[in-house]
Amino acid sequence: MTDPQAVLPDKRQVAASFSRAAASYDSVAALQRAVGAELLARLPAELAPARWLDLGSGTGHFSRALAARFPEGCGTAVDIAEGMLRHARPLGGASQFVCGDAEHLPLACNSQQLIFSSLALQWCADFAAVLAEARRVLQPGGVFAFSSLCVGTLQELRDSWQAVDGLVHVNRFRHFVDYQALCAASGLEVLELTTERRMLHYADLRQLTHELKALGAHNLNPGRPGGLTGRARVKALVAAYEHFRNPHGLPASWQVVYGVLRRRA
Questions:
Q1: How many DSSP H helices and E strands does the chain contain?
Q2: Cα separation values, 17 from 20, 63, 123, 131, 161, Å
Q3: What is the H or E stretch that residue 97 is in?
Q4: Which of 65, 88, 190, 230 has its CA 20 to 30 Å from the CA of residue 45?
Q5: Residue 187: which domain range?
Q6: What is the pTM of this model?
Q7: Dmax of the chain from CA atoms?
C-alpha cells in the first residue's frame, strides 16, 4: 500500500486555501454538487438518523440537503476551514457548525447515526484514522457514507505538466486499492465501495485552472515549484494539453470513489 502521509499536502494549507475560496466555491462546484447528490442517492433507503454529521461541510450545501431529507434529525457541520464555516452558518441546515479535523473529530463516542462526507477526505493523509474516528463516533448500526478522489483525477493535466518539466504541479491522490484495503481493515462493514470516472470539458486551459483556484483545489502538494510559472512553461503546458482536445473541448478526468460503510450492531 502506498504511503499517502508522504505525498498529501499540509492540512493547514488546505484549510487556508478553502477558507479563501469560500465566496467563489459555489459558482464553480457543479461536479461537487453532482457527486454529492449521487452519494445521497446511495444512502440506505431505510436510514432515518436522529443525529447526523456533514464532515467536510464546506459552504453547507449538503448540510441543507441532509436537513431537508431528514427533517426530524439534528445535524452538525464540521470543516477544517473556518472561512467555509463562516460562509455556511447564516445559511442554516445544521444545528451546529464546528471547526474540526476528520482525523481527530471533536465529537463524543457513539453520538451519530450518519456521517456524510462528500469530496473532502482526499485531503486527509491518514485515512485509517478517519475510518477509526468514524467507527468511534457512530452508534452501532450507524452509516458512514463518503465520496473522495483517487488516482486518475486530473490525469490529463498531470501528463501535460510531466511533458513540460516533470515537477509536481497537480494534487496527488490515493490509489483505489488503498481505499479498498483501508476500508476492509477498518472494522466497519463495507456495504458499497466503487469508483466512477467523471469527465468535464473546458474551452481552454485557463478555464480549468481558474475553476481549480476558485474551488480552493489548486496545487497544494509538498514539492510543488515555488514562485510564478514562467510564460514559456505556460505556453508549453498549453501546447501539451491541446493534444487531449476532442470535439467537446479540453477534457479533465475526475476519478470518484463512493463508499458506504456501517458500524456493526
A1: 10, 7
A2: 5, 21, 12, 24, 22
A3: strand 96-99
A4: 88
A5: 4-153+171-201+254-262
A6: 0.87
A7: 59
CB distance 82 to 19 below 8 Å? yes
How far is the C-alpha of 144 from the C-alpha of 115, rounded, in Å? 5
Task: Determine the average pLDDT of the residues in 119-143.
Answer: 96
Question: Does any domain span residue 115?
Answer: yes
Q: In the beta sheet, which residues pair with residue 86?
A: none
Q: Could you report the per-residue pLDDT of 238-247, keeping only the tens digit for each?
A: 999 999 999 9
Bridge-based pairing state of the strands 112-118 and 51-55: parallel
Residue by residue, DSSP assigns 34-47 as HHHHHHHHTS-TT-
Report the candidate in 197, 179, 196 with the shortest Cα–Cα distance to residue 188.
Answer: 179
Distance in angstroms (rounded) separating the CA atoms of residues 39 and 42: 5
Strand-pairing partners, residue 143, are: 114, 262
Q: How many domains does the chain have?
A: 1
pLDDT at position 197 over 90 = yes
Alpha-carbon distance of 144 to 90, in angstroms, equals 26
State the CATH number of the domain containing residue 184.
3.40.50.150
Could you report the per-residue pLDDT of 2-25, keeping only the tens digit for each? 444 434 556 666 666 666 766 566
Would residue 208 count as lying in a domain? no
C-alpha cell at 128: 485509517
**What is the full DSSP assignment across 53-67?**
EEET-TTSHHHHHHH
Q: Where are the alpha helices (DSSP H) in the chain?
A: 11-20, 22-25, 30-41, 61-69, 82-88, 127-137, 155-164, 176-184, 205-215, 231-241
Is residue 220 scored above 60 in pLDDT? no
pLDDT digits (tens, 9 = 90+) for 36-58: 999 999 999 999 999 999 999 99
Instruction: Kindly tell me if the per-residue pLDDT of 188 is higher than 70.
Output: yes
